[in-house]
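Good morning C.,

I know you're traveling, so I'll keep this short. The sequence:
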Amino acid sequence: MSREILHAGKFISRGKGRHITRVMESHELIAVLSGELNMFEEERYFRIRSGEYLILQRGRKHGGLTNYSANLSFFWIHFLDDDIVAEVPQSGKLSEHSPLPSYAQMYLLEQSRTEPDRESLALLFELMLREIRRSSAIASETFTTPLADAARRYLLVHYTEPVSLHSISSELHCNPKYLGQIYHRIYGETLITTLNRLRIERAYQLLIMGELSVKETAQNCGFNDMAYFRRQFIKYCNMTPREFIYQKRAGFLNTDSGARINIGNPASSRNELGKE
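The tokens, ready to paste straight into the viewer:
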């Protein structure tokens, strides 16, 4: 199958800067090799860790939510084929011992040749896509459960309300410990982690609007403990809520058209075998 592939590279972080906010004319596949990458696309948030992938779609604004971690590295490839976006889930976890990183390294080696073999590049990219499809099929068959899905949906609707593992398990008529284990096994994070992330995303948007105080924002998002809200905001945004407000007022934050935090110079980290 012929794919419209543009170029690829391997990104290695120096622990400075963050992914630039932009809108591309191509799609981008990112496969994290080590560390963790926090990204947004329009109003969606993605936390991609080692052994996971993300496909950013063209025409949609995306960028980094946090600074690059010192141990972060990922493979990226730009392509134009819209069918790929419809073929595979936008993000997911690769199967254990996935050969995709090996395919990516082979792709970069072939691309670096003076006269790369386009057929070989197309074949390697197709192998990457097949590995993503295979991993997605395994995850769907093995790990998806109605209980975890129900908990996820409940959080998306009620995250600004007083919510806990026990209250959700009571609502779903199941054992709290069992629910917590199933949810973590499927989504790779605890229910409380998901809850805090959803609340901080909302807090971020409210602080951009600037209509509420920090305390009012915290309460609007479901936080009753201001110290806890502050710690969670620092965790996801690398600054306190008040620092965020100050930098926004000073014009240091790119928050136009719903864009998220974009502080730091991505150029301070290096890109190998191509320009991202």
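Safe travels,
E.
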